[in-house]
Predict the 3D structure of the following.
Amino acid sequence: MAEEIPLTQWLRAAGGGDDAAGNRAYAQVYAELRRLAARQLGNSAGATLTPTALVNEAFLKLAGGSLANLNDRRHFFNLAARAMRQTVIDHARERLAEKRGGGLVRTELDEGIADGVLDAQQALAIDQALNALEKQDSELGETFALRVFAGLSVQQIAQLRGVTERTIQRNLTFARNYLHLAIGDTP
């Protein structure tokens, strides 16, 4: 917990224009964000989006926003998850535009999704369904996004949200079932 205070302070200072504080914050979270990005992207052959590129693009999106308004570590990782998700979705849209559509793809939402590789169409389908879920229940949407797009473990999400791991498991199961229905897949 002691490491959370400096990170939050550094991020706030960076939002206020302190480049040195931004560099310290980036250095502190870079390895963790890169590990999460590598896990999210998997080892897909011919991938054009690398974990390093994903983290860098996500951090640029974060730096372009208002880091001065950060509340805590949880808030930062929610923003980081959203930035990585947007980067992956933007990249997926570009790849689909290059392919000019393509056929429909069956989307599997199982326990290993955070460890698996999403193709462009799967990522877009999940993003659309997740947007709908977030409108209905923001906590479920946040939990699922932290698991899938940030690659956080159940334990890490529980710590960030201040709830039990069992609650996170329940939320993930409910969110996964909702997304299956929204995508038109059978759970």
